[in-house]
Design a protein that fits this description.
Layout: E1 12-16, H1 21-32, E2 36-41, H2 44-55, E3 62-65, H3 71-81, E4 86-89, H4 104-132, E5 135-140, H5 155-173, E6 178-185, H6 194-197, H7 202-209, H8 218-229, E7 240-243
Parallel strand pairs: 1-2, 1-4, 2-3, 4-5, 5-6, 6-7
Helix pairs in contact: 1-2, 1-8, 3-4, 4-5
The chain binds nicotinamide-adenine-dinucleotide.
């Protein structure tokens, strides 16, 4: 295989939610490829910790504290960042609550961060990409965007919105040199979900639920982001790469089928 197959060396990438979990792993993976990373997060503490890990493997990152759900904060971050070749939208939150009970505030908070912010950042960082005629947008969606996740307020609705936002961006911007794609993770152990794994045998049961035999590590998702960020995926736009260890293939396994059960 060609050395430096991805050809990302020397590029600049902005990553939102870069202080934790998947965004942190994406920032590290990009830096390992020689990418200068602009790390955005609302938490300076987590940005600072993650930046040490990034600096250990690649170019020193630029840190910008930014609330991605605030359009002025995003525009300010984009102007501080300067020319960016790649945008990875990763910042996200979750709030519990079924439709009957979830508050309007919680519903809107989830849509503001998980969906509207992806529009704000795409627009603010995409502007320069369109002017230069080259860029790659990668949005972290979720298998929850196609499979309703109960008692999670607007989480699935927001992720479904991201899947369509990405397709619309691909439709409108691909002819101008800017591609847009999504990665849909399945179960990933990160600070967002860590609390589930510390309850009883949940970690083992979750591993068993996935055909590949384990839930994902943030690095599993980051590797797929690298491909979509790079020119190696130059003919891929408007696509979604489901990265779930096969979890969404398991629907038929949930019903009994006498005579066909696994031996
Ligand atoms: N963990 C999973 O199982 C899983 C599965 C599918 C999709 N995802 C998605 O992956 C993305 C990353 O999730 P994670 O599990 O790494 O979560 P995480 O909580 O570990 O990291 C999310 C980061 O986003 C930042 N953030 C939140 N709101 C922000 C805001 N308003 N402005 C700026 N930064 C903000 C947080 O400070 C945090 O650093 C999210 O979009 C999430 O929905 C996660």
């Amino acid at each position: 295989m060609t050395q430096n197959w991805l050809g990302l060396d020397g590029k600049v990438a902005a990553v939102t939610g870069a202080g934790s979990g998947i965004g942190r792993a994406v920032a590290i993976a990009l830096a390992e490829q020689g990418v200068s990373v602009v790390m955005l997060d609302r938490s300076l503490d987590s940005l600072t910790e993650a930046a040490n890990a990034v600096s250990a493997v690649g170019p020193d990152p630029l840190l910008i504290t930014c609330d991605v759900s605030d359009v002025a904060s995003v525009e300010n971050a984009a102007s501080q960042a300067g020319a960016v070749d790649i945008l990875v939208n990763c910042a996200g939150i979750s709030r519990p609550g079924g439709i009957a009970d979830v508050s309007v505030d919680d519903w809107n908070s989830v849509l503001d961060v998980n969906m509207n912010a992806y529009f704000f950042t795409s627009k603010a960082f995409g502007k320069g990409m369109l002017e230069r005629g080259h860029g790659s947008l990668v949005h972290i969606a979720s298998i929850s965007g196609r499979n309703a996740q109960g008692n999670s307020g607007a989480y699935s609705v927001g992720k479904a919105g991201v899947l369509m936002l990405s397709q619309q961006l691909a439709l409108e911007w691909s002819a101008r040199g800017v591609r847009s794609n999504t990665v849909s993770p399945g179960l990933v152990r990160t600070p967002m979900t860590e609390a589930y794994y510390n309850v009883g045998d949940v970690a083992a049961r979750r591993d068993k639920a996935v055909p590949i035999g384990r839930v994902a590590r943030p690095e599993d998702i980051a590797q797929v982001v690298l491909f979509l960020a790079s020119d190696r995926s130059g003919y891929v736009t408007g696509a979604d790469i489901v990265t779930d260890g096969g979890f969404t293939t398991t629907l038929m396994s949930s019903v009994p089928r006498p005579g066909y059960d696994e031996k």
